[in-house]
Design goal:
The protein is an alpha+beta fold. It has two domains: about 100 residues, no CATH class; about 300 residues, Porin (Beta Barrel). The protein contains seven helices and 16 strands. A 16-stranded antiparallel beta barrel has the order 1-2-3-4-5-6-7-8-9-10-11-12-13-14-15-16. β6 and β7 form a beta hairpin.
Length: about 425
């Protein structure tokens, strides 16, 4: 194979091997059968050998090395038809093997992301009191089942740096099927997603989710809020949930959505909401996108519970208003963006809020946030956000610690690969 390759390349260039001087490679002796051909190809600039002046003729060639040699030969005016004819059988076999290998290698793709973050607050609301300091690593596995279905899995490791213990944990926390059934998009299994833009719930859940339509859509989901139960003492806050939404997803301009979210409460949930066995939340949102640079969004939420566990009255209403300018893009180094939001949500309008500021007040919370991000390099984005939030006034006459303002400075570096 090696002898045929060298001779075929020489023929393709159409110049006799004897027309060239001694070859530059120390490991090719003058009496070697390929000496003349190697000399010719080296002098023509088609082959270069290695940095230590060796040719290493007994070493198997990779496809990339072969492609490089052929490209150089073509640049020199080589007749590739002769080369193809010389290696017709070998190329045919190689194509079969390579096609099968490439098909198998494309069947599973692995991507990942790393997030380093540091948070500081004036109150004891972070992972280590007033501070939070950690590194989160995620690996995603996307396996192609057929033309319509994929499997997605995620392994997540969380390390904490704010103490001397070296706390860390690794979980397999996404395992889902994604595909199409008729004209409907289907997701089934453990997922990590948001509901109502994260103003109701942001976290892991076991569910089946259906969506139909493109520019105009209708969607729904049914399952369990696993993240919510994990964060409670007896893991019995929510038994199951369902949600439905209709909306639009046009590029630019104005888009909107209207939806309903309902969860059947477990024992801890009933205690939190004055003995009621369910919590329902209506929501409606609108987004104005001006030339992909400036976006204004607003959402109104209304829960069906006005009392918490001790009988105190709480607001059933909530709204969020946000304004953003551009935004950092992993694929565009130097891209950047700014964003500001105002929140005013009664305790019956959210379960696990998406913001990194403090929201766990007895009666709900209100406040604002401002921040920005920038792509430091390709696939590296740095973000900083400041939150100023406090509890809504409740029926409790004496303010407790949770009803005082919380100031949180949150910084994170996201790396994608």
């Amino acid at each position: 194979m090696k002898k045929s390759l060298v001779l075929a390349m020489a023929m393709a260039l159409g110049v006799t091997a004897s027309a060239y001087a001694a070859n530059p490679f120390s490991d090719v002796p003058a009496g070697h059968w390929a000496y003349d051909s190697i000399s010719k190809l080296a002098a023509a600039g088609v082959i270069e050998g290695y940095g230590d002046d060796t040719f290493r003729g007994d070493r198997l060639m990779t496809r990339y090395e072969m492609a490089q040699i052929v490209a150089r030969a073509m640049a020199k005016g080589a007749n590739v038809d002769k080369l193809a004819a010389e290696f017709a059988d070998e190329l045919a076999k190689l194509n079969v093997r390579v096609s099968a290998l490439e098909k198998k290698s494309d069947n599973v793709k692995i991507t990942g992301e790393i997030r380093y973050h540091y948070g500081h607050s004036n109150k004891q609301v972070m992972e280590d009191g007033k501070n939070e300091h950690g590194l989160r690593s995620r690996l995603y596995f996307n396996g192609k089942i057929n033309d319509n279905w994929n499997y997605v899995g995620r392994i997540e490791n969380q390390q904490w740096f704010h103490d001397n213990i070296g706390n860390e944990g690794t979980r397999f926390n996404i395992a889902k099927l994604e595909g199409r059934l008729g004209g409907m998009d289907v997701i089934a299994g453990r997922d990590d997603d948001v509901f109502a833009d994260g103003y109701i719930y942001d976290g892991e859940h076991d569910a089946i989710k259906l969506s139909y339509g493109n520019k105009w859509y209708i969607s729904g989901a049914y399952g369990k809020l696993t993240d919510l139960n994990e964060d409670t003492d007896n893991h019995d806050f929510s038994k199951h949930f369902w949600t439905a939404e209709i909306g639009s997803k046009f590029d630019g301009g104005v888009n909107g959505k209207v939806g309903y979210f309902n969860t059947k409460l477990g024992q801890e949930g009933k205690e939190a909401y004055n003995g009621n066995d369910s919590l329902g939340i209506w929501y409606a949102g609108v987004n104005f996108d001006f030339k992909n640079d400036i976006a204004l969004n607003a959402m109104y939420l209304r829960g069906n519970r006005d009392k918490i566990g001790d009988g105190d009255s709480v607001s059933k209403n909530g709204y969020v208003v946000g304004l953003s300018y551009k935004g950092a893009d992993f694929a565009e180094p130097g891209s950047w963006g700014l964003a500001a939001n105002y929140y005013h949500q009664g305790r019956s309008t959210y379960l696990a809020h998406t913001i990194d500021g403090f929201t766990e007040y007895a009666s709900g919370f209100k406040g604002w946030s401002v921040g920005g991000n920038v792509a430091l390099a390709k696939n590296m984005i740095l973000g900083v956000t400041y939150y100023d939030t406090k509890g809504l006034k409740s029926a409790v006459e004496e303010k407790n610690e949770n009803e005082k303002e919380a100031h949180v400075l949150w910084t994170q570096l996201d790396i994608a690969f």
